[in-house]
Amino acid sequence: MEIGEVRVAEDADFRKLKTMCDDHSDWKLEINKQSTTVWTKTNDVSNFKMVKVRTIFDDIDAATLYDVLHDPLYRKTWDQTMLEGYEICVINPFNDIGYYAIRCPPPVRNRDFVTQRSWLDTGTELYIFNHSVNHEKCPPRKGFIRGISYFTGYMIRKLDNDRCQLTYISQSDPKGKLPSWAVNKLTHMLAPKVVSRIYKACKKYKDWKSKNNPHFKPWLNAEQMMSNLPRLDPAAIKPINAGISQESLDEEEDINEEDIRMEDF
After folding, report:
1. What HEC string does 150-185 produce?
2. In Å, what is the CA distance from 169 to each residue of 60, 193, 235?
3. How does pLDDT run across 184-213, given as a tens digit for each residue?
4. From residue 44, how far is each of 49, 113, 136, 146 by CA, in Å?
5. Cα(86)–Cα(107) distance, rounded to whole angstroms?
6. What is the distance between the alpha carbons of residues 131 and 64, in angstroms, rounded to a whole number?
7. How far apart are CA 199 and CA 124, in angstroms?
8. Residue 244 and residue 116: Cα distance in Å, rounded?
9. Which of 4-8, 9-13, 83-87, 242-246 has the least mean pLDDT?
């Protein structure tokens, strides 16, 4: 899918995600340790590299990981960077549009995203991916820079003995005036940290969910999904360029290596 495009995801879109996850041609290996591998790749869309992360969870089943990545209420308990997140509307039982705002340490400005999210469970593999769109209910906000997700996705592969393999891939542009070297450095350095947070969240999810509306999983239940959110109004989708932030961001141009501290993220 192209950014700004809103439609029901097709089989070809999920095949694209699978191919990107499994084909490592032209990817540069950055990290390979403790069952986690990180690659980066240059692209023609922007100066910001694509990143791909693959790991194996030996004691997490695929269904739990899938639920953790989907559950918006649980995410608020483990995603330290999330300031706000919610669904705006539903396209069909397997596609929705939502808003996500993230905290960034100074001098980096906070970012937010409006994306269409699509998902699929094939039985042996589970997919989630998103791309940026512009919905009139979420115009650019003061204090936030509207980032762009060209394509961000997860592929979960079921393995034996309740193990699973997670592959995460992202091609994004934080916009603003962040130097590309800073974003590229952070992207591949943060990837293992994100994997660790997801793993820890998975270990606690079943207990948390048993106490927090345990039967409510709209990503698995079409009736819950369609009755929980307003339907998409096609007239509410606006050109992607109309959602660009207009604030002055000159201070981000002056970021140097001393400003990039891993403990801040």
Report:
1. EEEEEEEEECCCCCEEEEEEEEEECCCCCCHHHHHH
2. 20, 15, 31
3. 776 767 778 889 999 999 999 999 999 999
4. 10, 22, 29, 21
5. 26
6. 24
7. 20
8. 17
9. 242-246
Angle at 216 between CA 213 and CA 218, to 5 degrees: 155
CA distance 107 to 260: 9
Match 């993220």 to its residue by tokens. Answer: 265
Contact (CB, 8 A) for 134 and 240: yes
Instruction: Find, among 50, 56, 18, 23, the residue nearest to 37 by Cα.
Output: 56
Is 45 in a helix, a strand, or coil? coil
- Buried-state track 168-183, b at ≥16 Cβ within 10 A, e below 16: bbbbbbbbbebeeebb
Query: Quick check: helix, strand or coil at residue 117?
Result: strand
- Residues 238, 32: Cα–Cα separation, whole Å: 42
User: In angstroms, rounded to a whole number, what is the distance separating the alpha carbons of residues 240 and 244?
Assistant: 8
Q: Which pairs from 39-48 meet CB under 8 Å and 24+ separation?
A: 40/184, 40/187, 40/188, 43/171, 45/150, 45/171, 45/173, 46/150, 46/173, 46/180, 47/180, 48/171, 48/172, 48/173, 48/174, 48/180, 48/183, 48/184, 48/187
Give the integer Cα–Cα distance in Å for 114 and 208. Answer: 27
Cβ-proximal residues to 207 (8 Å cutoff; 6+ apart), any chain: none
Euclidean distance between CA atoms 13 and 15, whole angstroms? 5
More confident: 245 or 247: 245
Q: What is the pLDDT of residue 109?
A: 86
In DSSP notation, 130-146 reads EEE--BTTS---TT-EE
The continuous run of DSSP H or E covering 55 comes out as: strand 50-57
Contact 148, 175 (CB under 8 A): yes
